[in-house]
Amino acid sequence: MNTQVQKQQLLYKGKAKSVYETDNADYLILHFRDDTSAFNGERVEQLARKGQVNNKFNAYIMQKLAEAGIETHFEQQLSDDEVLVKRLEMIPVECVVRNYSAGSLVRRLGLEEGMKLNPPTYELFYKDDALGDPMVNESQSVSLGWATAEQLAQMKDLTLRINDVLTELFDRGDMLLVDFKLEFGVFKDRIVLGDEFSPDGCRIWDKETKKKLDKDRFRQSLGDVIEAYEEVAKRLGINLD
Ligand code: 5GP
């Protein structure tokens, strides 16, 4: 893919990213904004540098996944806050894997936070803001036409492989990858990882102190949100300049 793609009209404005069409029907440009939202968009704030930090963070992770043989939509970082990606037909199901208990699992089952989950849990959520992204299962996803059973099996396999790759990566920076959410889509009949991987969509704790280094700092008003994202990036060796 060459860099000569021209940005065209806004296709979709999400909570943290804007998606632009290009003059090539197979590619889109994602713009990472500083907008930070929680509680299904109820609380939105601008956090300086977030767009750039997440764009560079995502580029690094997507390249690491590609090196591990996982196909992603990432093509090329275009600027501090823009990336060129393949245009996927998105599957409206979010894939969540958890290595430790936290977040909605803790609330749903009345668990203590921080229990090791062995093997990791795997959950699906239907991507629908109006419904608050409800938890769904594979049977519902197939019956409602969101994905085929084969696609869902591939998504699960890929998510668990990604968990293995990233757990090791974060471990090397003395961090625990607690949980994360992925979104997949179809590109030329193949299941490909889409959306982004950044501290907005995962939980990362310091291995020793269990200090939260992810978007929970925003959700729980702990402060120093972007400083924590930058610390994670530094520990992974990501250049944010
Ligand atoms: P939980 O189900 O505990 O709220 O979320 C599990 C993991 O998936 C967390 O790392 C959380 O950040 C991520 N996640 C779940 N839903 C969303 C979402 O709609 N947007 C983002 N950015 N992350 C999500």
Give a quick set of tags describing it.
single chain; 241 residues; alpha+beta; six-stranded antiparallel sheet; five-stranded antiparallel sheet; 13 strands; binds guanosine-5'-monophosphate
Tell me what you see in this structure.
This protein is of the alpha+beta class and 241 residues long. It is 29% helix and 35% strand. Strands 8, 9, 10, 11, 12 and 13 form a 6-stranded antiparallel sheet that branches. It has a 5-stranded antiparallel sheet with strand order 1-2-3-7-6. The protein has a two-stranded antiparallel ribbon with strand order 4-5. α1 runs parallel beside α6 (225-236). The structure holds guanosine-5'-monophosphate. Residues 94, 96, 102-105, 133, 179-181, 200-203, 215 line the site of guanosine-5'-monophosphate.
Shape: globular
The percent range for helix content is: 25-40%
List segments where confidence is low: pLDDT < 50 over at least 5 consecutive residues. none
**Distinct compounds present:** guanosine-5'-monophosphate
The fraction of residues assigned to DSSP E strands is: 35-45%
User: What's the N-to-C terminus distance?
Assistant: 24 Å
Largest sheet: 6 strands, antiparallel
Overall number of strands: 13
Output the helix-strand order: EEEEEHEEEHEEHHEEEHH
Derived structural class: alpha+beta
The radius of gyration is 17 Å
Mean pLDDT: 97
Give the count of helical stretches.
Answer: 6
